[in-house]
Amino acid sequence: MDRAGLDLGGGYRARPIALDTYRAACARLEGQIFGGGSLYDFDPPSKAPPPPGETFAWGISTGEDLIGWSFAHQKDERTVSMADTGILPEHQGRGLYTRLLPHLLDTFRDAGYTLVQSHHRATNNAVIIPKLRAGFFIQGLNLYEGGLNVALTLSLDRTYREAMHVRSGLRAARGDVAQRLGLSSIPLEETVPSIAVPLPEGQGEDTNLGGGYVLRPVPYEVYYDIYTGLEDAVYSSVSLDWPTPPRLEPPESPRYAWLIGHGGQVVGWQSSRQWDARTAYMVNTGLLPAHRGQGLYTRLLPPVLAALGARGYALVRSHHHATNNAVLVPKLRAGFRVQGLQVDDHGVMAVLIFSFEGLYREYMDVRSGLKRPAGEVARALGLEEP
């Protein structure tokens, strides 16, 4: 970044500042920026902090007024940690973080770093979404003095980025990635041609998804028959190949299914089922490769969520490969929150939850430490308001 600063548009600029200037700005403004969160009040430390290594500090300003900052420091010989970014509330929601982020990453790349790490409250979608869109991956959750944090990592090295996809189960190990992981390379498979499947009659009204696409409710059996015929053309993820078939029948629960049609043919699907007495589970969504990258997943979420809400569910749950940002970002933008990571027969999966009820959304923010308990949520948790 030019030492003279960077034009962020809308009258905002970012420029490198001295470490002491950053610390003074934190002391002056952090209460206004982070005061609504919950942080454990430790006794004074008995040890001096370790040296931060190489540091990077930027101030964000409008006119002569400093209204925010971003601070990063070296963590090890390959990694820089984006430790702290703050913007005054009245200047949030204007895309400043999204516009600043690429320039910060260019700075780290030019400085020779391979990995960029950051931690954020697990329900802070306003920051997590720009990070995922920039290429960060979810790599963990930790409970610390500020609440529940989601750990994100961006690899500036293409091979390591692909290795994270292999670890999550989203893709198979091939070529240099397989060699670096000490795994046998899985041969490239020829693309499975999709079978032209006529869009069958539905059981209810179609939803117009735009661009000639429709979302059609169908009986579960109709969806499942089509799914089994097209799944190899849709998925390239690596799941455990169980050596024996299941010995038990799945539990009976209400199931819901939709097909995505275009030009009279099936190009995708969505299936959901009941998870428990309050929760629906979005089990499976698939699109044929030729129909991806057009915003279909984003557009189908509102009608599917509305249908599940109309059936009385308070929560909607879904699981996705932890590095599948193409799905995680639309889900978070629709209001889902990260609530866990789990390892199952499909790989390392991020657990997301959507709540139709404002009280539960507030509860998630309280549990993550993003907000302090107040009002109805404080009463529901049996906590006195501070």
General description of the model:
The chain has 386 residues and is α+β, with helices and mostly antiparallel strands. The chain has 2 domains: 6-165, Aminopeptidase, CATH 3.40.630; 207-242 and 252-368, 3-Layer(aba) Sandwich (Aminopeptidase), CATH 3.40.630. It contains 10 helices and 16 strands. The strands form 2 sheets. Strands 1-2-3-4-5-6-8-7 form an 8-stranded mixed beta sheet, with helices on both faces. Strands 9-10-11-12-13-14-16-15 form an 8-stranded mixed beta sheet, sandwiched between helices. Helix 3 packs antiparallel against helix 8 and helix 4 crosses helix 5. The chain is globular, with a radius of gyration of 23 Å. It holds the Pfam family Acetyltransf_1. Keywords: Acyltransferase, Transferase. One of its GO terms (molecular function) is acyltransferase activity, transferring groups other than amino-acyl groups. Residues 12-159, 213-357 form the N-acetyltransferase domain.
